[in-house]
Amino acid sequence: MAESHGMINRxxxxxxxxxxxxxxxxxxAWSVFVAPLxxxxxxxxxxxxxxxxxxxxxxxxxxxxxxxxxxxxxxxMVSITGCILLTAGFLxxxxxxxxxxxxxxxxxxVGIGNGFGYATPIPVMAKWFPDKRGLAVGLAVAGYxxxxxxxxxxxxxxxxxxxxxxxxxxxxxxxxxxMTLLGxxxxxxxxxxxxxxxxxxxxxxxxxxxxxxxxxxxxxxxPAFYFMWIAYALGxxxxxxxxxxxxxxAKSMMIPAGALTAITLVIGAAGNASGRILSGWMxxxxxxxxxxxxxxxxxxxxxxILYLTGxxxxxxxxxxxxxxxxxxxxxxxxxxxxxxxxxxxxAGINYGMLFTAWGVTGYGASKVAxxxxxxxxxxxxxxxxxxxxxxxxxxxxxxxxxxxxPSGATT
Length: 411
Description:
Elements: H1 2-24, H2 31-41, H3 45-73, H4 75-93, H5 99-118, H6 121-128, H7 133-163, H8 165-186, H9 216-220, H10 223-252, H11 257-286, H12 288-308, H13 313-342, H14 347-376, H15 380-399
Helix pairs in contact: 1-6, 1-7, 1-8, 2-7, 3-4, 3-5, 3-14, 4-5, 4-8, 6-7, 7-8, 7-11, 7-13, 10-11, 10-12, 10-13, 10-14, 10-15, 11-12, 11-13, 12-13, 12-15, 13-14, 14-15
């Protein structure tokens, strides 16, 4: 009975992480607000893109602070802070009258809310699931990839046409408050030294975790951190370049409007969420670096094929799913790898430092892709450049090795 209770107890933490990330994943659904905002205020695409860019940068930077606080104070207070800021950002965005105001409310306040909310599920899962870390982290963060598949269509097809974009911001803010509040109450750390009943670590396993707790400074002194940071940045940069160009690329291929909606809001989100869950599960058996290498290698091949098969709707669906899968893998498996390689005690800040790689990606990828299109007047350069970046990322992952504790350290 006690063993059954313990298992139920820890799977509730996954539910908390999933609820938190489903709400936070609304950041990916930002695109549904772009058209109504541009129509009402006469803004250009560069203006609305800057709002998302600010949100991504602030998200990544605040993650470091939130991760450190999570390590010191535990997940609850950090999660509640994320809950309040995310909700406030959406409610305030409903009152938008200028671009500067929206950048502050959505780009900064929602961005910080994302950083604080996202900082807690991964360390909590890592501590509760030393035996199934990849799967548990993948399930928890899958919500971030799947949130846009739920709230994007809801806002785009029903809320905005029926109530307008201002009321939609308000409705979503209330929904996200409830979801993140519930998530915050469910995200609790296990007792120190917790192990699942009947489980003993297997040192020879490819996914075996370190027994030494690296401080942030020690983490930064390991070569693996820099190889993985570069691979994370370039792997997701290439993926984001392709993702940011999917809609205009598909339009240039004369893909029907209905198919475009499926590509951007359903197929992509399903691939993203699947990559986070199933690649996380695979990494428990195959090892974190092996799965990262495999999926980055697949993405290097998939992105040019996506370009070459773009005129065929069914093949386009398949390749979009694969590209998003490979992209989602990196957001999931890097989180598990951080706890495996550098320990769980400082997992919040250690992953926060690694996660800044994604912040560089989110801010710069779409801009670079746009510049390439302006220069060459086609999408080939963006897709092939993305593949080349993935190849460099793969080389970095191949050079990354599991870090060893500092000389003289006791484990």
